[in-house]
Amino acid sequence: MSVTRRGVMKGGAAGAMSIAMAGSLDAIFQTSAVADTGAGEAYGYGPLVPDPKGVLDLPRGFSYKELSVEGDTISDGVRVPGRHDAMGTFPTGKNNELLVVRNHEQTRSGVKAIAPDELVYDPEAFGGTTTMLLKNGDELKSQYVSLAGTSTNCAGGVTPWGTWLTCEETEGFSGESKSHGWVFEVDPYGRRTKPEPLKEMGRFAHEAVCVDPHTLTAYLTEDASRPFGMFYRFRPRAHRGDYHAYMQGGRLEVGYVRDVPDLSLIDEPGTKLHVRWKAIPDKYAKQTPIRQQFGHEITRTQKLEGCWWGHGKAWFTASFAYKSDGAARDHKGQVWTYDPKTNEFELQLIFKADSKFDGPDNIVVSPYGGGVIIAEDGDGAQHLVGTTKDNRPFTFARNAANGSEFCGVTFSPDGRTLYANRQSGPGVTFAITGPWNKIRG
To answer: How far is CA 247 from CA 50, 137, 197, in A?
Structure first.
């Protein structure tokens, strides 16, 4: 099956999708923007300036500060865990301070997350979260392990009621003492966190989650294979958002598009697909993984990754798709949105074979220019990639230290600071500041 704008306009899959172009394809479909350090940059913040320390290349006028490094001592016998991943920020309302909750994507190796027993789920697991208290955006005042005993805490998401949802990207591992593949809720203020899985949100290889603040509906991505993962929504029974909202249960469903079994088939930005929703027979996956409970009638895609709520939509990424792995078509990354008002997926951006960018992973909607910031997890040099309001991609940062991926991109509540992680070699959390309002394009 091949889905293109021309095919749709001829009616090949007219019932499944419609086309709406937000400007010309030449304006939107820019997949070869210059990404080399020091080269010209038509959009964004200009060319990157090589870092004399060899850590992080940024545009002129921007600077970074290292906040928290893997292995740093937190307290006696406790160190900062490894494999930094997704993060969320939360205001404290006093003394120009804020809190940052950070995931650690570890299973049974690395610097183990160590916490008091009341914050530990499974003693055999090495993952969890840390919470950092910052002053003035980039001064680390304190940090501690805020959840431990979870596994492969990859991405997650913030809730409208001010908590962090941390997601396990696993369905279990050898030696576990409890089941894994769940979402856990972390109170950044340290008062109500319990190491109890939100089982109503399903057991699968969770990647990320974002929440519609108006309906409290959560949208979740799954990074899995054999078969590929799916896009989910969780509609809670609760009508008021608070720490216990998702503990009360709800309905977990999977989204699909008729006649589109694989989102990699879509390769033209602006393509819109009408989404249908199907209930899940066994969301706890007691015997069969959720993605194996459906056949070809469901829509899947390879490497579903980051998810973020912004501009009234759920933004999500697919890092790549390869026919050699079983995908319907090759690409080096897609950025999608789901609009609950129209019940439609829309392809915002695609990186094809000739793109200088690849592997979009974590994503955050930028408060500047209407675009997004994407963390690359691809081949070669690793970048933070920004987009303008017209979906023109540009290079914002380059990992000058090693080949580790970027992750955890998120802005401070006041929008003045961007936080991002280098995941390994070692893992580092950066605070990045500069002339954000000077974006071009």
So the answer is: 48, 32, 9
